[in-house]
From TrEMBL:
Entry membrane topology: Multi-pass membrane protein
Region annotation (Disordered) ranges: 1-30
Name of the protein: Chloride channel protein
One Pfam assignment: Voltage_CLC
Family assignment from sequence similarity: Belongs to the chloride channel (TC 2.A.49) family.
Subcellular location field: Membrane
CBS domain sequence ranges: 577-635, 713-770
GO cellular component: membrane
Amino acid sequence: MSSHAKNSFRRRTSSVREDCLGSSHSHHHHHEKNVDSMTFVDDESDVWRAHYALDHYQHRGNLFWNAGKHKTLIQYLLIGAVGVVQAIVAYGTNLTSAHIIEYKYTQVYGRLAESSGFVDVFLAYLFFTFYQLAFAMAASLFVWIEPVSAGSGIPEVKIFLNGIDLPRVVDPKTLVCKVLGVICSVSAGLPVGKEGPMVHSGAVVANTISKHETRDDKQVRDFVTCGAAAGVCTAFSSPIGGILFALEEGASYWAPSLTWKAFSCSMVALATLYCLNTVGSAFGKVGFNRLFSFGNFVFEEESSFAVFELALFVAIGAMGGIIGAVFNDTNERITKWRLKNVNHSKKRRVLEVLVVSVLVSTVSFLLPLLWRECKALPSTEGMDTSQLELRGSLVAFTCADDEYNEVASLILTDPGDAIRQLFHLHKHVFGSGALMLFFLSYISLAVVTYGIGVPSGLFVPSLLSGAAFGRLFGNMASAYFPQLAFSNTYSLIGAAAVLGGMARMTISLTVILLECIGNGQYVLPLMLTLMTAKTVGSFWNSDLYHIHIHFKKGVNFLQAELESVSRHHKLNAGHIMSDDVIFVRPVEKVSVVYDILKSSNHSNFPVVDDGLLYGTIGRNALCTLLKQRAYGKPIVVDEYSVTEHRDHRNHDSVRVHNYVTVEGGGGEDDEGEKFLPLTQWEVIEQSYPKYPSIGDVRISYADKDCMLDLRPFTNCAPISVRESASVTRTYEIFRSLGCRFLPVTNLHNQIVGTITRKDLTPDALAEKMIGKGARKAAH
């Protein structure tokens, strides 16, 4: 064993990494500062293997039915329940917010007419402002009750699926505050959407329903992934898009079985949504205008496009990438200011919401007044049913009954209606001036609003402002090239470009938009636009979700790929590891284990036998063993000795009375005796997720000299890396396998250090590179 390793071992309880992500608190101890990380790796201990082998043997069943099929059936029934419940949540959210918004605008329009004087307009403005202010106040109070419910929730879901257990992110209380809060924030007329919060609500629904059946982090992760897919499905009526969203943006791990689960969940969610939408018509044909839909994009020849226009779509994509980059950069600066001046006080957060609400209401009401221009309603000749309905949603404001105000029709109406107006009404309905005024004002309000203390989504504001931008581009281009496609095509491309420039999604967003419009001919334009927007935007900054993830304190988020500057540098695992190893031995004194758990906040510990890596064991397992008093008096104890043989079945230097003799199963020593540990895997498994903490453990003075045999509970097939392994290899192993920590060994399997999530963050790697460069320069 190297002297370097020996020196590290002497300090095994003297130093604790205070900021180690894998903290000691269990899922229910939210008062501690550190954020807990999860492990997606199977335990592989003897008791774990014996438990599942015995379970399989006892429930082996017959040719047509066995324990495995029974477990699979239960999982799929729960997944189906997730889809049903999430569809009900989404339907209720849409229905409630739609009625509130409809009542609001009915009252406002009723107070306005062509002959309205100053007093009438002012009274309408006061009603409009205070109505929206009341709902904004309500939305902020839900965030006061549960701060995690603020924002879209997509960054929090991405963090959770990355392996970081943020407190209360998937708790039922968060679901209630999120859903009620987003109803209020949308009803308050803020430039927010309810689609992002649907992803978060789907994740919470999945975690809540699966809670009594899941027994490890890996099962929870799969359910939450399915819930996120169902959330997108119910938000956009896009089942395949939901699956791809979970794959592209959510899960850091994917398997074929997870594809089937997510597919089933989205399928059931959409079927439930169809049933809810047709329950009043005896489950007849689905009215897609009652779901989130962009309407019918199959026109005669107007919506077709020429091949040369693909170049224009690429140009729109590039401009969308620039707009998205500017939006993200501006919102990042505003968020930094908020974190410094607002977010530390709940009262200030509520006050900020009220100020923003008044600002949005004033701008929304003032712009149509300043526009003043009234246009005659478009002719009904050649319009289909949906277009006639959209024509009827044009807002007169202070104009005559047969006229409408262009700006009011975009900003003083339901955002979904405004998007469909931009997509489907004739290009002369909205002039370039009105589109420019609306685009600049609405996107400015959206960039200020995103991040305030209310539940809010990004999709609808991005799509609406992007649709206005695309239609503006189409109007200007058609002035020089009359043969160009109808402006609804450019509205769609603009919407995709701006949303893609902010969120930087490609595959999933392409499919979501295609499922919303129901026309496959736009697949290539959307692909080109979104790829260009992502590429151009990524030159400047990250997507908005990762920007907000960066602001989460204590969150060490691991991207899909290592940054190139780290990848090409000659760093290896030995350079980035922590060499201050806190370890336990296969058979350890109760007092030693207790002191280690008390003095450190590590979540996992290497099990070291004569300096060599024997395996690993988790903090939760150690606390459970102490709580269950799974220890005994030693028969033979050579002070701190360990056996020459590392196989616990041949371990003779320490014999402990924490086994009971049974007729079969368990471990077996040289004399043929068969033993079974006093504590079985079911005891540890059933404690999930509320494992006992070391604060819950009480040991007597007599117990301190007892010996705790960790061999049956040790993961004897741990994932580890050599100290010579490259950082790239280490990063890929850690992230793709969902590790919580990695032991680092030398060529002789002697443990020389450990790597946790915090050691692989860009900041940590940059610091190591600087330090390595400085040492090299010194020599």
